[in-house]
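INFO  loader      accepted 1 record
INFO  loader      residues=463
INFO  predictor   begin
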Amino acid sequence: MNRFLFFKAATIGLLVLLLLVPLSLIEATIAGRAAWRMQVQHDIATTHAGSQVVAGPVLVLPYVEMTTVSHARRDAEPAVVTRRVERFVLAFPAELVVDGDVEVELRRRGIHQVPVWRTKALELTGRFEPVAVPEPLAAEPGTTVAIVPGEPYVAFSVSDLRGFVSTPSIDLAGERHAFEPRAAPPFDGPAVRARVDPKLLATGAPIEFRLRSDLAGMRELSIVPLGGETRVALRSNWPHPSFGGRFLPIDREVGPAGFSARWSVPAIATRARSALVPTEPTAGSAARAPAAPGDAFGVRLVDPVDIYAQATRATKYGVLFVVLTFGAFWLFEALHGVPIHPMQYGFVGAALAIFFLLLLALSEHLTFAAAYGTAAVACVLLVTAYLSPVLGGRRAAAGFGTGLAALHGVLYSVLQLEDTALLCGTLLMFSALAAAMLASRRIDWTRFGLPAPAVRDPGRPAG
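INFO  predictor   done
INFO  writer      dumping tokens
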């Protein structure tokens, strides 16, 4: 058994395991920086409106159902019991057209930035069909049912009221009504209401409406399809949208200057209306329904380059970098007979590990491509300069540096891939193993590291 080969392999394996410690610390540093960025985004969100889900408008006709029951008693006056129940009738838009320009700007805090948006003229138009408070049903003898109409209003809901840059208003049949920050059933969450003149409902004619809102938010804008036919058109200067929710756009255009998208959702395809239908109320209380139906759809502003996610992916290849580099060292040592000390292995491994920390630090100030290129060039030049005397010449060191640069280039290509990243990474490992096996076919590993046998001069007499 070649003890030198065994101890050499054990030493190199130990070095690989030791290098896992700085690589793990670098991954922890990346996670900490990403957590700090999330904290910055949260801090900005506390001083700015968050994601917005827009629902409405909905015409609401509240009323009180008074039920009086008389119970006859012997030798006494009849007992009268009155039950009061608050109810309301909902009139959803027969059609709802939403149109808006979403202007995006970047809010910075330190080295981090967060995209926030504002729709200076988010416009919702449509019409309400005639609706009226129901007539009282026929009651049993001794029971009287009376309907007391309340004040009709239009309810409008957004998930964060801080997003209103100015007071929103709605035009109903040509008359302007300002919204008030009051509870507005059927929405349990943040909502506003605008009074409606009962005379407008008494005509029995459809009511055209036009709602304009200067709304701000961050990350996401979603619309709840409450119209009989809901059509939405959004435009923005943000070139990296992510369309989500229960419905995707019927057409969209995305380019460097921004995006535009259109949705069309019929009421038959969504349960948004039924989610707002009031449940059976209890005595003395109004019926309530969920504030935010789940059939919302819209757009989310995506950060196209998540430097921390890419740095994490790169660091996960750190062990592969170290193994391939040490394997190349060992092959060079075996093929050329140049002894390389384990300490020299360790220095090169440390340079490979520091590359990932340098990549993280630079990517916070440069584009990821520029940061990767700068860190890779610095690492390759350092290793090449160090190996020049170690490998016995500049030519061998330059060849090794070229191979290391190619390895960095392959890693960058893998980082840009999504669906084929695993395939390309596996092919890289297979190719490296195949090259090592073919290059080491004629190596006599039983004599690896041992001195070469002396060659006897045939002209010299033995003994």
